[in-house]
């Protein structure tokens, strides 16, 4: 399914402050927000669904939304379903539905300080195409979507430029993006010729035969180049660091229906990785979760924002997220003016997904 630009793309620079942890805002881009303070844009915050909100059937539990006098809604489980809601049946039904859901990684969102410079680097050095670009002057930001194919069939990047903000803190939690190329050495030479930064020269991985290289884009986001044959999904990885790998694997399997594709421990370097996704690594974009021995928390900065995932039913997905260790930060519902429905959540480490 195709998802349209979301709350992640909205900004009010009046609320931008050097200390992101102190932010409280009603209209802010995700790139400037504390992970625990996520609040969708003005366009989402101003949704008025009225006092008549229909009941929603979630995994056999009927939930009614009632509007309180203060304008906030509350969920009410009808008496006939309380026993079911308090048993393991709900989790079993949730797991059954998640397995049937047709999920797909859609795009990854992050902020850059010079949009034109970044677009130039991605198109000329990494071979991406500019799929679309839109400017929202009233909210002082510009979006650009880039990738290796149409958004409705490929994993793409959504870049956000916030007027007047030329630098972001990437933090220590974000790792890298992975790009599959047919010749890493040629790609590295091209990047050097264009003035790009190479932080690890082309060569085989330690203990393996896959040829890789590490580079940085103009904002300092790291990219790992992996040498592969032709693939339908060259934008192939997003690497994030987590504090408890087994907990994260459990969450992404049960809440999002991802498959553990492989897991590898590297005791000599004191880290373990797990590849999670919806299909083989050579044909699909995957999430690479990394656990560094003894490190349970990371600084997430304010540059990297979130991953968008396509689902058949945001209401059921939200319930699964709640049941299996995640936190809903935007209750499921339609975007204003269009039929697309979204929900936003945090995984157990505080990484955002929409």
Automatic annotation (TrEMBL):
Report the cofactors: Zn(2+)
Transmembrane regions:
none
Is-annotated flag, keyword Zinc?
Answer: yes
User: What residue stretches are annotated with the VOC domain?
Assistant: 104-228, 234-354
The protein's enzyme class: lyase
Catalysed reaction, written as an equation: (R)-S-lactoylglutathione = methylglyoxal + glutathione
| Entry EC no(s) | 4.4.1.5
In the UniProt record, does the keyword Metal-binding occur?
yes
**Entry's Gene Ontology BP terms:** methylglyoxal catabolic process to D-lactate via S-lactoyl-glutathione
List residues binding Zn(2+): 158, 176, 224
What GO MF terms are annotated?
Answer: lactoylglutathione lyase activity; metal ion binding
Tell me the Pfam families matching this sequence: Glyoxalase
- Give the annotated active site: 224
Named in its record, the pathway it takes part in is: Secondary metabolite metabolism; methylglyoxal degradation; (R)-lactate from methylglyoxal: step 1/2
* Keywords tagged on the record: Lyase, Metal-binding, Repeat, Zinc
Family matches, as PANTHER family: LACTOYLGLUTATHIONE LYASE
Provide the function of this protein. Answer: Catalyzes the conversion of hemimercaptal, formed from methylglyoxal and glutathione, to S-lactoylglutathione.
In the record, the note on similarity to other proteins reads: Belongs to the glyoxalase I family.
What protein name does the entry list? Lactoylglutathione lyase
Q: Which organism is it from?
A: Tetracentron sinense
């Amino acid at each position: 399914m195709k998802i349209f630009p979301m709350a992640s793309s909205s900004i009010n620079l009046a609320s931008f402050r050097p200390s992101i942890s102190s932010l409280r805002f009603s209209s802010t881009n995700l790139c400037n927000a504390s992970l625990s303070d996520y609040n969708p844009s003005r366009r989402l915050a101003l949704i008025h669904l009225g006092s008549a909100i229909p009941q929603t059937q979630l995994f056999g539990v009927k939930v009614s939304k009632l509007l309180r006098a203060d304008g906030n809604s509350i969920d009410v489980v009808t008496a006939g379903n309380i026993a079911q809601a308090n048993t393991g049946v709900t989790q079993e039904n949730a797991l059954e539905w998640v397995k049937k859901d047709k999920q797909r990684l859609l795009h990854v969102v992050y902020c850059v300080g010079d949009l034109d410079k970044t677009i130039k680097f991605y198109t000329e050095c990494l071979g991406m195409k500019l799929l679309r670009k839109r400017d929202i002057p009233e909210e002082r930001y510009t979006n650009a979507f880039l990738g290796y194919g149409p958004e409705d069939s490929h994993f793409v990047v959504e870049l956000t430029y916030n007027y007047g903000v030329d630098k972001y803190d990437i933090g220590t939690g974000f790792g890298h993006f992975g790009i599959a190329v047919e010749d890493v050495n040629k790609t590295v030479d091209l990047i050097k010729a264009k003035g790009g930064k190479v932080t690890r020269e082309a060569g085989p991985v330690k203990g393996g035969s896959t040829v890789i290289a590490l580079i940085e884009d103009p904002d300092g986001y790291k990219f790992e180049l992996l040498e592969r044959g032709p693939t339908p999904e060259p934008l192939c990885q997003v690497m994030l660091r987590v504090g408890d790998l087994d907990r994260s694997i459990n969450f992404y399997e049960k809440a999002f229906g991802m498959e553990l594709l492989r897991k590898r421990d590297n005791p000599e370097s004191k880290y373990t990785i797990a590849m999670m996704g919806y299909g083989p690594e050579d044909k699909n974009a995957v999430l690479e979760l990394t656990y560094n021995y003894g490190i349970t928390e990371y600084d997430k900065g304010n540059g990297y924002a979130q991953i968008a995932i396509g689902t058949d039913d945001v209401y059921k997905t939200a319930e699964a997220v709640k049941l299996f260790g995640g936190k809903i930060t935007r209750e499921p519902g339609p975007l204003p003016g269009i039929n697309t429905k979204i929900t936003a959540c945090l995984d157990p480490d505080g990484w955002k997904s929409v």
